[in-house]
Amino acid sequence: MDQLQYAREHGIGIDVDGVSYSNRYPQDVIAVMQRGNYMVDYDSDDEGRITAIHVNHISHCS
Fold first, then answer.
1. Alpha-carbon span 18 to 21, nearest angstrom
2. Cα(45)–Cα(27) distance, rounded to whole angstroms?
3. Read out DSSP for the chain?
4. What is the pLDDT of residues 13-54, one digit of tens each?
């Protein structure tokens, strides 16, 4: 939750399954993540600073 709040306050893009959540509250992202299995992935610039957060639904592997 703290990472999502930090991202929101610093203009770092957040998307869930490709849909922008940048203008939504962190608890909105958490609510979506509680509905299934999600993985968080980060994009960064050449200096290693996070530039985007991607939250993607994953299915079980068989």
1. 9
2. 26
3. -HHHHHHHHTT-EEEETTEE-TTS-HHHHHHHHTTS-EEEEEEE-TTS-EEEEEEEE-PPP-
4. 999 999 999 888 889 999 988 988 999 999 999 999 999 999
